[in-house]
Amino acid sequence: MKKLACVAAALLLAGCGGNGGPPPPVGISSITPDRGTNAGGTPVTITGWGFSLGTVQVTFAGSNASGITVNSDTEITCNTPSYGTNAWVAVVVTADTESATRSNGFYYFIPPNITSVNPTSGPSAGGTEVTIDGTGFLAGAAVTFGVNPATDVAVTATQITCRTPASAVAGAVDVTVANADGGSDTHPAAFTYRLPPNITDVSPAYADAAGGATITITGTDFYGNTSNTIVRIGATNVTPASVGATTVTFVVPAGLAVGTYDVTFVNPDEQSDTAPAALYLYDAANTIFVSTTGDDATGDGSLGNPYRTIGKGVQAAVSGKTVFALSGSYTTESWPVAMKAGVTVIGESRTGTVVNAGASANAALSFNAVSGAASRLERLTVTGGAPAAGYGVVINNSSGVQLVGIDVGGRQRGVEMSSSIAAVDKCRIHDNLTRGGLKALASDVTITDTVFDGNTEEQVTGGGAGAYFDEDCTVDISRCVFSNNDAASGSIDRPGGGIYISGVGSIVNCLFYGNSASIGGGILIYDVPATPEGDAQLFIKNCIFYGNSASNPSDTFVDGSAAALVASARYATGTEFVNCVFADNVSSAQGSTILGYTSLDRQCRPTLRNCVIYGSNANGYYGNN
Fold it and tell me: How far apart are CA 375 and CA 461, in angstroms?
């Protein structure tokens, strides 16, 4: 039995039989944990055997452990003594007169100590450069903000620099430095992640350019004080008068020019938000005010005694004057409001100043033979009465016309121009029923940052639900969106859901999405020839055509139709596509992406350079000549 017990002890304790002799009376198998701070006091569990032979003593580097408890012949618990430096030390267990030693049995480390974290807040997107000062930092130390590791960590013995990781939520998090040897220190709630500010309102939205008016910015996630935050009017920095969590006030300085300005608020962490076109600065001597609570008969056009109608304001204005329409719904005008050369009509806000022509068959506003000084509509909504009503804005035989930041919807047609030079910027032309969003005849048109959405074209000879440009037009269209415009309703061929164009010019950085037509769901290009030298005259660059469709309800184009493009008719070789993407367009016939078609013995071949075509349900490209 004794021999069997010896064999069992040898197998279990690896102390008998391996060297041909009996196991030592006392042995150490493991020390857990095997490291702790130099201050001591780390609870340690030692496993082994022979711990019940007699009185037990445990030493770490020659110093006695405290709180020794012999739990069994094979387990002891105790607390480490202190030690002066970072080092591995020997652990000795003595039971009665027998002892066991584990060399390098326990590692003492001096833990890092964080004394400061700067800055103490930053954006939730991360990337803030943070400096952590303290002592005991070792090469290879890791830094975490909450549970997320910092990046770009650089370590010296007394300082760490790093960049904050992103955080999914705002609020305070702990900052922890962990040395590679196991030592760590945590600064509770040492860094606060902040959301960017969000401006919801700027009020009042107008002020005298002479300065002195107090403006209130309303929103969320503002913080800081008047010395570490900035209000920006356009490009001019202004010191706030007050800063609260949801409101900021500032005083308009003197010296700013008359005009419309973006308003920006910048938190101390440099996160900011901008309210575009939120503040109009007027020249009192050259501004005529109108209000739905004013009076055309007794008013004098001043802010304190405004006119009632926009038409009265324009009638009273001369070139160089501005008619400022305070928020309200203007429904009692004599339609159309006839614009003058050199006169600007601007609303207090794009959504708050509403020109509602109701069911009037006349246009809401018109420019007729207006030329010379620029005439401008800005920051208002034109609506009312579709589908039986007239148009929104009509421009005829005019030049220097500017439509800026206006919303035109709910009319038969949003904008019509003929024999004119006009610019459309930052507008939305939408939900105009039966005659489309914009139609231009024999005009030079520049359109930027404008959305054409949800317009329909139902005329027998119609086309271009989003926008239509005839063969005498020159266009410059950039950064625009044409979406969900429909020229496909009914059984008549109506081409060009997004755009119908026969003119020349360029269409750049635009998105055509979800448009539909009988042919050319995204765009139809008709009769655009090359120059005599063979060069293109219509350039479509960096555009995306996605999810457009063509139904081709009749036999007019017998060889097929195209969802994204139809270039058709005589000698139509003057179109060039560069860096365009055609994706998931759907056609009921051939050429679900591009169709080059002619009913005559003519060439009809658009040029494609560096374009991508995929996801088409029919032939991606189809041409009959």
Answer: 32
